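INFO  loader      accepted 1 record
INFO  loader      residues=231
INFO  predictor   begin
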Amino acid sequence: MEIAPDFFNYFLAALPLLKTDPKLYCVSAWNDNGYETAVHDPRRIYRTDFFPGLGWMLTSELWAEVRSRWPSGYWDEFMRRPDVRKGRHCLRPEISRSYTFGEEGQSQGQYFAAHLSRIKLNTDFVDFLSDTARPLRHVENEETFDRWLINEMSSCVKVTLAAFNSELAGGQGKCLRIEYRDSMYHVFASRFGLMPDEKEGIRRTAYKGVLIFYFQKHRIFLYDTWPTSFS
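INFO  predictor   done
INFO  writer      dumping tokens
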């Protein structure tokens, strides 16, 4: 595994949040949809309901909670189980801080050529420990992140998938929000080049049904329910 220049800085900055927030159970270096074309800002960190793995941190308290049940293989699937996650979140970056070159391994190269090998590794150093910039302030707790997410989505232009192409023709650098139905998610995933699967009923990178990514330099929020019911 290769790591980004700010890999340890990111984890050190996130550790106090992991220790104090009961709604967090991991910090991950990985974005499952972190392709070169789907990411932009190395400073952006998000909460997610989906356990990303591939370079992650947990507390000794969580280890004590799960160690007696720790599986001999596919521990990422274990960490996604509802009885393990218990409604808790992970932190994950927009641009991955880890990159796997392990084409061979326990998963026998599953998804490597089509997916894992295409994930972008961050090359810029971001000082997440900076008291001035405070790049993690919007993820400090669930309520703060929910407010931040609602504000971000509210500032975006709402479009349908059918009207998306015409919106693209209107220029670059827009923020767009698009509503989807989970039963039709494969259509949206195919259109935007996202991983189409789900684990334990959660789409990769999703937070309360919202997925955030870039497409042709536009920032996109996919959502299945408008987040008025957030905490």
